[in-house]
Design brief:
The complex is a heterodimer of chains A (377) and B (298). Chain A is an alpha+beta fold. Helix content of chain A is 52%, strand content 17%. In chain A, strand 1 and strand 2 form a beta hairpin. In chain B, 50% of the residues are buried.
C-alpha cells in the first residue's frame, strides 16, 4: 500500500530527528541498581524521594502516586531548568523517569494537581564530571560558611524556644517583641533552610500554602493570630510543631555540606527574597516587620560573600570592589530606617523610600549574580 | 479515578479532534475514497505508540526512554502536524470560496487532496500524544496486575472512549450544517486547534531544553482554571488552553492564529473564478504540484 510505504520512513525520520540512538543500546536495569534507581512516594501533600545523593550518570526515578490528585515529577537544575519530567501520574499509578544527570545540585519536585511550584527537595549528584575544582580558598570558604550556619542555627533555636514559650504562656506583647528577632536568624540562612523543601513551607509558609493542600502553620500562622485577633490561646500545638520543625532543620543544616557554588547561589537567592517578599511587604503582612527580614537577608548574603572573599580576590578582584561598594550602598539606604535597636514598620515607609531600597538591592544583585561564575572558573 | 478518567479524556481529545474534523471534511466534500488513508494513518500511529510504549516499559531500550527525547519527539511531531493541518485549513478556505462561487459541481475537482497528506495528518495527530498515552496505559495495566485493582485502567480507557465519542459527535453535527457554513466554521475551529498544537510543540521544545524561557510565564490563572477540573481538561485537550503558559508559547500561538485567521476569513475582492488558481498565498496541494513521482508508477 502506497500510504504506508511513505509513512514508515516518515515515522522513522521523525524518530531520527529526535536524536535517538538505535534500538538495543543496553543500559541494563539490573546494572542500574548501583544506587541510581530512586523511589519517589508522592501524595497530595508529600514528595518523598528515598535518596538525596546520587552518582553522576543515568538515573531512574520510579514515582508512585498514592494521593488523589494527578501528579507530575520534575528534576530541576539551577534556575528551574528542566532536566527531566514525567507527567500524568494518575492516582494509584507508578511511572518512570529516566534522565542523564551530570554532577551538580538539583531539585526534585512533585506537582500534585499539576500546578504551582511543586513540593521541592534537594538532590545532589556527585562523581565523574566535577563541578568546581576544589582549591584551598574554596575549601576554606565552605568551612567558614559552615561555622556561620552553625552559629546562626544555634541562635535560631534559642530564640524560637523563647518565642514558643511566650506564645504558650499567652504573653502577647513578649511574643510580638520576640517574633522579628527569632525570624532574623531564620532569614539569614534561608537558602540553606529552603534546600530542605519539605520543612520550609511548614516553618515559613504564608497563608497561600493552603491552596497547595498544606496546613497553614509555623511563624506566619502565629504572626497572624498575634497581630490580627491578638488571641493566641489555641496556638499551643502550632507553636510546639514550629519548635519541632526548627529543631529538625537545625540538625539537617548542620549535617549539610555546602558547595562553593551553593554559597554563591545562596547569596543571590537572599537578594531575590528581599526583592520579591520584603520590599513588597508580602512576607510580614500582619506584623509589617519586613525590614527585620530585609536586614537579615542582607546580612546572610554578606556572610556568604565574605566566606568566598579570599577565593574571589584571587579570581575576580574587580568584582570584590564592586560588591563592597554596592553592599555599603544598600546598608546606607536601609540604615535610614532604623528605629531604636530595631526597624521601622513596612507601613511607615513611603513609596519613594521603598523604591530607593528596591533600586539599591537591584544594583547589588547585578555583581552578586556574577559570583557563581567567578567561583566556577 | 475521575482524575485518571480526565487524563484519558485530555490525551484522547488531542488526537480525535483533528481526525474527526478531517473525516467530516472528506465526507462533506465527497472524498470518501480517501477514508482508508485516514484509518491507515491512525492505525499506524496507534500501532507504533503501542510498540514503542511496550519497548520502553518492558525492555531496556534506550530509544525514547529519556524524557527529554520524548519531549523532543512530541515537539517535532506537533510542529509537523501544524504544517499538515494548516494545509487542510486552506483546502477548507478554497472549498468555501468554490461554494460561494456557485460551483458545487467543481468541488471535488477543486479539492485535489493528496492521499499522503491525509494519511500523514491522521498519523501525526495520533502519534504526537500516542506514545505518552501508551505509557500511561501500561503503567495502569501494571497496577491492575500488581494488585491495586483495575480501576485506573478502566478510568483511562473510559476517558479515551469519551474522547472518541466527542469526536464522533463533532463529526455527526458537522455533517448536518450547510456546506459553506461548515467550511468556514470548521476551518476557523481548526485554526484554533492548530494554534494550540503549535503552542504545545513550543512548550515541549522548551521542556526539552531546545528553546529557552520555560519559566517566563505570560500569565498564571491556575486559581481560576484549576488543571484538575473537567473543563480545564477539555480546554487543554481541544485547544491546549492552559492556566500558566510561557511567554514564548503564547507568542507562538498569537503569531500563528492571528495571520492565519485573517488570511482565512478575508473575502476575495472578486467572486471566485472557476479555476481556483488565483490565490498566491495558498499553499499548493500535494496532488497538483508536489507529487509527480508519487502518483504515477514509473
Amino acid at each position: 500500500m502506497r500510504t504506508t510505504r511513505f509513512l514508515v520512513p516518515a515515522a522513522v525520520g521523525a524518530l531520527a530527528l529526535t536524536g535517538v540512538t538505535a534500538c538495543g543500546a543496553k543500559d541494563d536495569r539490573q546494572d542500574a541498581g548501583t544506587g541510581n534507581t530512586v523511589k519517589v512516594k508522592a501524595t497530595d501533600s508529600v514528595c518523598e524521594v528515598d535518596v538525596t545523593e546520587l552518582d553522576a550518570g543515568q538515573a531512574t526515578f520510579t514515582v508512585t502516586n498514592s494521593g488523589s490528585k494527578v501528579n507530575e515529577f520534575y528534576v530541576y537544575a539551577a534556575g528551574d531548568r528542566v532536566m527531566g519530567e514525567v507527567e500524568n501520574i494518575a492516582p494509584g499509578l507508578s511511572r518512570e523517569l529516566r534522565v542523564e544527570l551530570p554532577a551538580g545540585t538539583y531539585e526534585t519536585a512533585c506537582k500534585p494537581g499539576m500546578s504551582g511550584r511543586g513540593i521541592r527537595g534537594a538532590l545532589k549528584v556527585s562523581g565523574t564530571a566535577a563541578t568546581v575544582a576544589p582549591d584551598a580558598a574554596l575549601t576554606e570558604a565552605t568551612a567558614s560558611y559552615q561555622r556561620y550556619v552553625t552559629s546562626q542555627t544555634a541562635a535560631l533555636l534559642t530564640k524560637t524556644e523563647e518565642f514558643v514559650a511566650a506564645v504558650k504562656a499567652g504573653d502577647v506583647p513578649k511574643a510580638k517583641a520576640l517574633y522579628p528577632v527569632a525570624r532574623t536568624y531564620w532569614e539569614r540562612i534561608e537558602p540553606v533552610a529552603e534546600s530542605f523543601g519539605d520543612l520550609d513551607p511548614k516553618i515559613d509558609g504564608r497563608e497561600e500554602v493552603v491552596e497547595e493542600g498544606m496546613e497553614f502553620t509555623g511563624f506566619h500562622r502565629i504572626e497572624k493570630d498575634l497581630w490580627t485577633t491578638g488571641d493566641i490561646s489555641k496556638d499551643g500545638p502550632i507553636a510546639d510543631r514550629l519548635l519541632a520543625d526548627v529543631k529538625e532543620i537545625v540538625a539537617r543544616a548542620n549535617a549539610e555540606k555546602l558547595t562553593p557554588l551553593q554559597l554563591a547561589n545562596g547569596a543571590k537567592a537572599l537578594l531575590d527574597e528581599v526583592a520579591s517578599g520584603k520590599i513588597t511587604g508580602e512576607e510580614e503582612r500582619y506584623s509589617h516587620t519586613d525590614l527585620w527580614d530585609f536586614n537579615a537577608n542582607l546580612e546572610g548574603s554578606k556572610a556568604a560573600v565574605a566566606a568566598l572573599r579570599p577565593a574571589l580576590e584571587q579570581r575576580a578582584p574587580e568584582l570584590v570592589a564592586q560588591l563592597d561598594k554596592e553592599f555599603a550602598n544598600v546598608e546606607a539606604a536601609l540604615g535610614k530606617h532604623r528605629d531604636g535597636d530595631g526597624w521601622k514598620l513596612h507601613t511607615q515607609l513611603s513609596k519613594a523610600e521603598l523604591k530607593e531600597l528596591s533600586d539599591s538591592i537591584n544594583a547589588l544583585a547585578e555583581p552578586i549574580s556574577k559570583v557563581a561564575a567567578a567561583v566556577a572558573r | 479515578m475521575f482524575a485518571t478518567y480526565l487524563i484519558g479524556l485530555r490525551e484522547g481529545l488531542e488526537a480525535t479532534l483533528v481526525v474527526s474534523i478531517l473525516i467530516a471534511f472528506l465526507v462533506k466534500s465527497q472524498r470518501r475514497d480517501r477514508l482508508p488513508q485516514v484509518w491507515a494513518g491512525v492505525g499506524l500511529a496507534v500501532a507504533l505508540s503501542i510498540l514503542f510504549g511496550w519497548l520502553i516499559e518492558y525492555t531496556s531500550t534506550s530509544l525514547l526512554a529519556r524524557s527529554e527525547d520524548r519531549e523532543l519527539f512530541e515537539a517535532v511531531t506537533s510542529v509537523a502536524a501544524v504544517v499538515f493541518v494548516t494545509w487542510m485549513i486552506f483546502w477548507m478556505r478554497r472549498a468555501a470560496r468554490t461554494i460561494a462561487g456557485e460551483l458545487r459541481g467543481k468541488l471535488s475537482e477543486a479539492l485535489a487532496v493528496g492521499s499522503l497528506a491525509v494519511a500523514g495528518m491522521a498519523f501525526l495527530a495520533v502519534i504526537r500524544e500516542g506514545l505518552e498515552t501508551a505509557l500511561i496505559f501500561y503503567s495502569a495495566a501494571q497496577s491492575a496486575t500488581g494488585g491495586t485493582g483495575s480501576g485506573p485502567l478502566l478510568a483511562l480507557v473510559g476517558g479515551i472512549a469519551t474522547a472518541v465519542g466527542i469526536g464522533f459527535l463533532i463529526y455527526r453535527s458537522a455533517l448536518r450544517i450547510n456546506l459553506s457554513t461548515f467550511f468556514t466554521w470548521t476551518g476557523a475551529l481548526l485554526i484554533l486547534v492548530a494554534a494550540g498544537i503549535l503552542k504545545y510543540g513550543v512548550h515541549d521544545f522548551q521542556e526539552a531544553g531546545v528553546l529557552p524561557g520555560l519559566n517566563d510565564l505570560a500569565f498564571d490563572i491556575t486559581g481560576v482554571l484549576d488543571p484538575s477540573t473537567w473543563y480545564a481538561a477539555l480546554l487543554a485537550g481541544m485547544f491546549n488552553i492552559t492556566a500558566a503558559p510561557s511567554v514564548l508559547e503564547t507568542v507562538a500561538w498569537v503569531a500563528y492564529a492571528v495571520p492565519v485567521l485573517v488570511l482565512f476569513l478575508r473575502r476575495p475582492a472578486t467572486p471566485a473564478k472557476p479555476v481556483p488558481a488565483d490565490a498566491p498565498e495558498r499553499p499548493a496541494t500535494p496532488d497538483t504540484t508536489a507529487q509527480p513521482a508519487g502518483s504515477r508508477r514509473v
